[in-house]
Design a protein that fits this description.
By secondary structure, the chain is an alpha+beta fold. The chain has eleven helices and 15 strands. β4 and β5 form a beta hairpin. One of its GO terms (cellular component) is plasma membrane. One of its GO terms (biological process) is defense response to oomycetes.
């Protein structure tokens, strides 16, 4: 059996794609990336019309057949709820087209500065993306480990329910799941700002390189902005500044201000701590993706606990009552306050119970 025979069931005719995209009409164009242009259109899948995305290889962007077939190989063999699904592909002449499930809400980078994307939603998106990357790093069965090599917020897609889907596997590298050593890569690829410094400077690639990139994304989510900006035509990377402010306990200066009011302090502390650890210079100090998933889930629990308390408690009224407490009551978070009240406090000789 040939290499192509493995994927015969995924092939689709170019004419079907032209029909779905109005011959690649401008009204169907939804984006451009390092791979090429992306269109949307409907195909008949399982007997019903389904919206999908068509990613068309543009060789002018520097990617070619190798990256195309790597994506076909990757997404046909690796299936996870937090990886974008490959529906079909087309390889006719110069036309190389990947057909994906449609990401209704686009990519995460476009929502970083949107205050409508709540802290709770952001936590759930980060957990989903972390689960997808954890699956790639530690796959089950006989699958090889996958190093993504281009983790960034624009490669995290969002479906109609705001579920995160990792995408763009053209630069990924496969290796044995139990492999512990580092690859030495001569052709370093990736996106400035997101790349592990040890990989970017010396070509040393490991699964911790993806962890670093994911840490940058976590900071973007928390700060409500991309990790870079252009000033006077020069690219300025913000990651080191973010690290410095965290070290100096000045995180408040960079947190997305429109979200601060609804962020539980415990949740933010848990989230920022694991994000910071991802950016450690020494790779052995960085957490695994499994550890990141665990910490993000704790941050979500803390946030949801806080929101539940807010729904049940009028804190303005409670603060007036606390002025009468004997002895005086102090607390650092709403969670601490709730636990304190649940035990009862003395108000001028009267017990106040939950």
């Amino acid at each position: 059996m040939s290499f192509m025979d493995d994927f015969e069931h995924l092939k689709i005719q170019l004419e079907d794609i032209k029909l779905a995209t109005n011959n690649f009409g401008r009204d169907k164009l939804i984006g451009r990336g390092g791979f090429g242009q992306v269109y949307k259109g409907e195909l008949s899948l399982d007997g019903r019309q389904t919206m999908v995305a068509f990613k068309c290889l543009d060789r002018k962007h520097g990617q070619g057949d190798t990256e195309f077939w790597k994506e076909v190989l990757m997404l046909s063999r690796y299936r996870h709820e937090n990886l974008v699904s490959l529906m079909h592909f087309c390889s006719e002449g110069e036309h190389k087209i990947l057909v994906y499930e449609y990401a209704f809400h686009g990519s995460l980078d476009t929502y970083l500065a949107n205050k409508g994307l709540t802290w709770t939603q952001r936590l759930k998106i980060c957990i989903g993306a972390a689960c997808g990357l954890n699956y790639l790093h530690d796959p089950s069965g006989t699958q090889q480990r996958v190093l993504h090599r281009d983790i960034k917020s624009s490669n995290i897609l969002l479906d109609e329910n705001w579920n995160a889907k990792l995408s763009d596997f053209g630069l990924s590298k496969l290796g044995p799941a139990n492999q512990q050593h580092t690859y030495l890569i001569s052709n370093v690829v990736g996106t400035p700002g997101y790349c592990d410094p040890l990989y970017w400077e010396m070509g040393f690639l490991s699964k911790e390189s993806d962890v670093y990139s994911f840490g940058v994304v976590l900071f973007e989510v928390m700060c409500g902005r991309l990790c870079f900006e252009y000033s006077n035509g020069q690219l300025r990377i913000l990651v080191r500044m973010w690290q410095k402010l965290y070290d100096e306990k000045r995180l408040d200066e960079i947190i997305f201000q429109d979200l601060k009011e609804n962020m539980d302090s415990d949740s933010l502390n848990t989230f920022s701590s694991i994000a910071y650890k991802c950016l450690k210079r020494e790779r052995e100090e960085r957490p695994t993706m499994a550890e990141i998933v665990k910490e993000l889930e704790i941050a979500l629990d803390q946030q949801e606990f806080s929101e539940d308390v807010r729904k049940r408690v009028d804190f303005e009224e409670i603060s007036k009552i606390l002025d009468l407490a004997i002895p005086p009551v102090s607390y650092r978070s709403q969670k601490e306050l709730f636990l304190l009240l649940s035990k009862g406090i003395l108000l001028s000789g009267v017990a106040f119970d939950k």
